[in-house]
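Changelog-linked ticket: zinc ion example.
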Amino acid sequence: MEHPLLTAHFKLTELTRSSIALRHGIGNDPGPEEVVNLTRLAQHILEPVRQNFALAFSPSSGFRSHQVNKLAGSNGNSQHVTGHAVDFEIPTIPNRILAHWIKDNLVFDQLILEFHQEEDSSSGWIHCSYNQNKNRKACLIFNGTEYRVF
Ligand SMILES: [Zn+2]
């Protein structure tokens, strides 16, 4: 099993691949605990989104090793490091629509509409985390300068 499926539509490799790791020639391999967390993300976030919108998509970023996360310019306590967070978009679905569907239908820890501009409903991307011990259902929009609750 070189590319195990986590759910019907998502492979582990889709949640661990990293262009930063490739570019820098470094690894980006999750440990067993991170794989468990990535599996829960696929089960509780990605797969329900896939089923609802019935459109194929592949996440842009899931797990990031400490080194990759630092190179990505993200802070040290990013939920990507523990395999709790994933970034994605669905082609043809405005990110604002996607964010509101997740907010209204799923259990999650933190949902951020990243780098989103009000005047462009497709701008930015979705960052969503799932932490079965602490799902706060916190919803934020980040416009590149400041965060606000939605
Ligand atoms: Zn993210």
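Closing comment: Example verified and attached. The longest helix spans residues 32-53. The radius of gyration is 15 Å.
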